[in-house]
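seq as requested:
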Amino acid sequence: MNLNYLSFEQPIADLEGKIEELQLVGNDSDINIAEEISKLREKSRKLTESIYSKLTPWDVVQVARHPQRPYALDYIQRIFTDWEEMHGDRHFGDDNAIVGGVARLNGKPVMVIGEEKGRGVNDKVMRNFGMPKAEGYRKALRLMELAERFNLPVITLIDTPGAYPGIDSEERNISESIAQNLAVMSRLKTPIICTVIGEGSSGGALAIGVGDRLNMLQYSTYFVISPEGCANIIWKTSEKAPQAAEAMGVTSDNLEQLGIVDETIPEPLGGAHRDIDTMSENIKQHLAGQLEELQKIPTEELLEQRYQRVMSYGN
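struct tokens:
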């Protein structure tokens, strides 16, 4: 079993394995097998199209959690220029699960804030697997207030399995820090664009998810509780997670129909991890277009639209 592919992608993995074997044979002999490789690549492409046209919500959850999926820093390095990271919440410390700082989008200064899961064991531990603590959300709040002071639009990249539920988080009042972010973002006097790039789970996602536009990548997810958590509550077993994902409507298609998500950003065939440069360009184009649109709206009108947007949820 190829661990670079998800369980439902194993037929694709088998084909790609054959292509790699043929390439090795071709390198070691005078036999011209380019035509056969070309046929297999086309077969692999069609198979990938077929599989990804029939994804269930649970399949999408797995793609959103793919270990090779691009994270916030992967996109920041490709989408923005002059990135200057800022640290600390000025109350307790720095939280590496939240990254943020000033940058430029097509030459325009912006404040970028994202949730980062990390690569490799040591990096994942340092990033707390993308689960921010109270100081992480207070750092995000500090940067958003700084952005308002200097009239910088705020761009957030959401990707977390949830806020960290440990004792140290509770000691530092993580629920209050999330609530404070929701309140401040709802009235922040600068444009805010939020984009779910992977998992958008629970209050951990909402804490940097209130804005004027909410985007989701095609194979990202957005939910109040993980499908496993929902299944454990409803059916007392996590084995019912696929049914929970179906019932919860965690995908961008469902959320766009409900008016929660504004735009679904298409991903390359097979997911964002198959072509991160193309995915980054897609995100950049959407952000640039939305930013240009939002900066034309007077501040008071922008705040009123944001208020009406938030209050419409659930109607």
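The mean pLDDT is 94.
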